[in-house]
Design goal:
The protein has five helices and no strands. It has about 160 residues and is mostly helical.
């Protein structure tokens, strides 16, 4: 029996506090934790009672916000990491079943700026992209008299029979 029972050395508060925190993080019950780590269960329980009697710091609670935080004063240095699906929820709510959403020009501008802010795109770059995508298309138009023959109209020999 002397081989199975080792001599126990008295430990201080830091030792027991560390074990108490480790026990709270573990999935073991108190008896099993003491067996695994070779701790006397009675001493562990005594220290646990002392720690429980200490005043606990107040729990930090987050306040509910109706609106998001105001935008930062400066632009982010780099765009957010990760794919877009990991970002916060949608900018605008989904439409109701069978309904279409209608956005004012101000809403459209706000949505475009919000997307640019989320992806770390400067508003000036966004405006340049919109200009490049909506480049004007020019079509050659020739105005002629109704009686005059058209230069582009096929001649008699070019027409199919």
């Amino acid at each position: 029996m002397a081989d199975g029972h080792r001599a126990w050395k008295r430990q201080g508060e830091a030792f027991w506090r560390a074990h108490h925190e480790a026990w709270k993080r573990s999935d073991l019950n108190q008896r099993r934790y003491c067996e695994v780590h070779g701790l006397p269960q009675k001493a562990f329980e005594n220290w646990r009672q002392k720690f429980r009697a200490e005043p606990q710091p107040p729990e930090l609670r987050l306040l509910y916000r109706r609106r998001p935080l105001s935008p930062p004063l400066s632009l982010p240095v780099s765009p957010p990491l990760g794919p877009p699906s990991q970002l916060a929820g949608p900018i605008v709510p989904r439409p109701r079943e069978g309904h279409r959403r209608r956005f004012s020009d101000g809403d459209k501008q706000w949505i475009a700026l919000e997307v640019a802010r989320r992806y770390g795109i400067a508003p000036r770059v966004l405006r340049r992209w919109k200009q490049e995508l909506a480049a004007p298309v020019f079509v050659a138009v020739q105005i002629t008299d109704a009686d005059a023959p058209s230069v582009l109209a096929p001649t008699e020999g070019e027409r199919a029979p």
